[in-house]
Write the structure tokens for this entry.
Amino acid sequence: VVKVALDYNNGIYQLESSRGFLIYYSGKSGVVASTKGYTAENDAAKQWCVYKSERSGKYYLYNLGAQKFLGAYNTNGEFVWVESPDTDVKIVESTKNGYPFIFSTDGTTGAVNHHSHTQTAPYVKNWDQGLLDENLDDDGSSHRMVYVSDVDAATLATIQNAVGRYEPPCTVTYNYKDGYKLIATVSHELYVG
């Protein structure tokens, strides 16, 4: 079942391109992998929570198998796993029929892309031209999000706390008054989570 209107913060999804699924693969030394024909439907390695921050409106991808976030890409262009977010993820509309989403961690021209040889060397890299208009239908960058189930409350709380520590704090101001007379104003920065 491919949901068009996504149930952010409550759903677990498989993120699939025509070249394979985005997965956690322990054999890839801490980087995000891809595999073609990976069929274990209930395997947490290919299950993702797409979290949208209520405060900032930014998106984050959390893999249930790794119990980590999709992080920024390294100097080799490989995306790494992080305990706490180090980047948000932009979701851009694809022009590829059946695969309506492109994910980007740099938000400019780069896209999360399944290498064309994923059958023999499963890896996912940043494609620095993935968001250019002429590439919005690329097989490796265009994804569909297949709904698996709702996310449990404990996992959602873990994600919310990590994102709350990553995003800038909120400033809360207290005004102390005696009747109508202002006595003091105190501001505190509070992190959500």
Observations:
- The two ends are 32 Å apart (CA to CA).
- The CA atoms of residues 18 and 158 lie 31 Å apart.
- The first strand starts at residue 11 and ends at 17.
- The longest helix spans residues 153-166.
